[in-house]
Write a structure and sequence with these properties.
Elements lengths: L3 E4 L2 E4 L4 E7 L1 H6 L1 E7 L6 E6 L5 E3 L7 E6 L4 E6 L8 E8 L4 H6 L6 E3 L3 E6 L1
Amino acid sequence: QVQLVESGGGSVQAGGFLRLSCAASGYIYSTCSMGWFRQAPGKEREGVAAIDLNAWTKYAYFVEGRFTIFRDNAANTVFLEMNTLKPEDTAMYYCAATVGPSLDAWLQQPDAFNTYWGQGTQVTVSS
């Protein structure tokens, strides 16, 4: 069952912009905190940004001030706007959803909780 569908990835030059989208099922969207994680080849997965049902947000330190996560409730969609992209931002970006944990804890260890995952969208940033 497809519950989270990402889109918007692509290839950009350093300093560029991308907006990722995650379309969620109504049930998931209306009950879950949502967020974005990324994983580059040979690297561990890392939390990028998360947003709860009250629109409280949390960002990884390495994207603070560059990325923005927000929810469009009418569209059951979460976005990640990525500004001033760097080559080290290159990764597969995964949308995720969960119920209950703090955003800090979830970003650090999503597998410790009941997390739903999308299939991912590739972001490539060239220098």
